[in-house]
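Let us practice reading a record.
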Amino acid sequence: MRKYFSLTRTLFKNAAGMVADGKTKKMRVYLLYGFLAICFIPLLFMLYYMFQEAFKTMAPLQQSGSILAAGFHMTNLVTFLFSIFLIPGVFYFSKDSEILLSLPLKPQTILASKFSVCLLYEYVFTLIVFLPLIAGYLQNESVSILFYVFVVIIALTLPIYPLVLSSIISMLVMRFVPFFKNRDRFNMIGGILSVAFALSFSYFMNSSGMQQEDPSALVNLLIEGNNSLISMFAYLFPAVPFASHALISQDILQLGLYLLILIAALAVFLIMGKYFYFKGAIGFDETKSTRKVLNDVEMKKALTQKSKVFTYTQKELRLLLRTPVYFLNCIGTCFIFPIVIVISIMSQGESLNLAALNQIDFSGYAYYAILPGLAMGMLIGCINMISATAISREGSNVMFMKYIPMPLGKQIIAKMNAGIIVSVLTILLLFIIAYILFPMLPVLYYIIAFISAIIAIFLGNELCILLDMAHPKLVWEQEAAAVKQNMSGMIAMFGGMLIAGLLIAALFLLPNDLIMPISIGICIAILLISVVIYSKMDTIACKLFKKI
């Protein structure tokens, strides 16, 4: 037990140290965390309002417990989906795994310590759903002191079962499927499968077929009362109904059964780890080379001199496409948007009626497309994090940028071009889908919105890369840390969302006679700022790189 606590403390300190770049002051890190916490406040209020209204609706039917169970189920599902990537990275792909395997430690001790570190990470995602859920319940129900004790116990233990589930799946895959022992291959295929699963699940839950499946049985459960709907949430996460019943009635027996399921799951996890972990953890490689031999024509083509900026941009795009972590988190994030829109429309089935839009006269209101276009361009330009992590992705090789015979300004522009190209392709795909779904809108609307989006994309990428130059994360062991644990990327993402939200809010709040001049003025201002930053990029880059 002493070895477990000592190893857990060491692993947690190491993980916490990787969040900073080695030079950042603690106060700045705390301020950045505070900014991120503020960005989550709207989401917390939205979830709180949703849960509160659900409790208010279900309370007269004596089904408040079903909302608790649904919230617990949602929390477990979020934890499970996030841990699919977290568990392999911590258990197998981290560089400390090689050191730990050589130490006189049992596999159960290593697994338990790594599991504890993962559990601490997952508490963040748990609390995002759990806190609004409990706050909504307290607004509609009177509770005893024992309720708060149960809340603390359940909050601390709720992520355990989905983490155990994803850990067991990872151990079995790593032990019996050698194909996945290549980290790049695992991340690429695993990421695509996870996204496919999430989108398929969303389509299934929102499809008309799901909504109409056996309605009589659902109605019978609903009118039965006594929180009978809780039983619906026992399939994937069997501990959820016991946690819900324990919290509703403050039943110690139900809480005991809930904890017993978690203890049994942990026991199975550690027993399996004893036999599978070491055999699965040995023999990993980072990546593989194709070792392709070029013929004379290919060699001549490869050696043909091209523009420096063009070649550098090609290099950046190839790096994004060939590195699974960058592909999934930078490029994949953008192209999920169109897929989600299509799935959302398809899942509505016949309930979605767009015929009413044909009766609206859209002529004379083309300027209304400027602000939505700017908002979409700013959002897509920031959310893909390509420019916002361009310097951080260099890591310890950042000094290479200072040595090569190419001005820093041109290197930054080439890196920024990669983000602009991906953003423009995403916007183009979105507008094509929008035109197919809403052909009744004049083509002029789409042209104006697209041009506005392009202008915002340039400024968004410029601001993102300036942010990363000012605060790069250069100390990391895995590529994932350069993207997922990068404060610059998070600030750029939430900042883009905030600016996009303000532009859309302006569209609804401004008087009709002021929308056209203000929209045009904002568009011109964004264009001018973008041109000024672009012209001064070399000077700005040289100044910021002196601090690196």
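A brief commentary: The chain has two domains: 2-208+216-281, 308-350+362-545.
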